Amino acid sequence: MDWDDLLTALALYLVLEGVLPFLSPEGWRRSMSLIAGLPGRQLRLFGLVSMLAGLALLVIVRGGT
User: What's the 3-state SS for the chain?
Assistant: First the structure.
């Protein structure tokens, strides 16, 4: 992996993170308040599932190399 790949991934992450607040600020605000009210255990589980899904997608896209 070189720096271009890492910076490209960071840029794409920032674009994707900005889509929902841009399209629906009130919906995003409601979602964030609901998420903030979740217990820590559920947040950790959500984070783990997100990481595993991202890792699986990366392996599929990059072909395991």
Answer: CCHHHHHHHHHHHHHHHHHHHHHCHHHHHHHHHHHHCCCHHHHHHHHHHHHHHHHHHHHHHHCCC
